Model the fold of this input.
Amino acid sequence: MTGNFALIVAGGRGMRAGGSVPKQYRVLGGKPLIRHTIERFVSHPLIEGVCVVIHPDDRELYEDAAKGFDLIEPALGGAQRQDSCRNGLQALELHTPQNVLIHDAARPFVGQDTITRVIESLSEETPAVVSAIPVADTLKQADNDQLVQKTVDRTNLWHAQTPQGFRYAAILAAHRSVAGNNLTDDAAVAEAAGLSVTLTLGNPENTKVTTADDFESAGRLLTSPTPDFRIGSGFDVHPFEEGDHVILCGLTIPHDRGLAGHSDSDVGLHALTDALLGTISAGDIGSHFPPSDPQWRGVDSAVFLKHAADLVADRQGSIRHIDLTLICEAPKVGPHREKMRARLAEILSLEVDRVSVKATTTDGLGFLGRKEGIAAQATATVLFG
Done:
């Protein structure tokens, strides 16, 4: 259990967007807008439960939009957004959350990495965190006739977004203490109650769908999303020791020496593991499998690679290609290349044509040229979203 819950606020009428139903239930890309938003949170590995705040008249629309999801019983909205959020927070009380992320239903493009950053920023010392993006445009202040009065310094100015994350007990107490003030967002409630509020980076695509034009823009974004490709690299080297074989890419290859190392010393799988971890900024192989820990002595390095692949999948990543280069004078890689590709494809559940294995030498230069060990460098390409 993570102790992290999401509260999706959908209690408004939202008629500025046009249509015969509130905007959160209008169809966007073949399904209700709110369903896109719910999906972002129920699929996140750090979110334990999701509750939606709905208008009392929208129960049937909500049930249809949320069909198939295992959600907490919805809370009923109040007269103002602040009332709706307070009702939703109180509905979560039985689940004893540690943290709660409050998000607008009309923001269906929140990134998984944004959700993660908000959660990871919360602590006892940081009870309130707002996802936001720095103001990049020049700002003008005008009078009622739209006559410019001055240019506003944009230094340290941010566009606030949602989700906004909070220590649950602190934000519930804040809502109760400032009820009736009609504040515009939950960070304002936290500020009014004396809580310190911290910013964390949001994502520019996380726009709020409000008008008919916004729906058109959102539809284009769904049909032509910007691919989020990330490339990670890895490098590893192991010296030779006494032995009669080496393990490379999961294969046992006869040789007049073995490779020294804490696990099975599979230099290829180690480099690939670091490459995959690099795509999610999750440290290196040693931080997940410390060489000082005896449980990893002699273990099959496929365990490491599969762990990294699972972490990528948890972040909604899809491995599109891996490229591995083995650097050594001996043993010869060529005769084993296709079996290596097949084994890597098996471990990572990839098509073989997405796996590249190459070999090279240093033309006799350096410790590799002196046949003192084997090195490997790897690149992984992953698509997120």
About this structure: The longest strand covers residues 228-242. The chain has two domains: 4-223, 228-384.
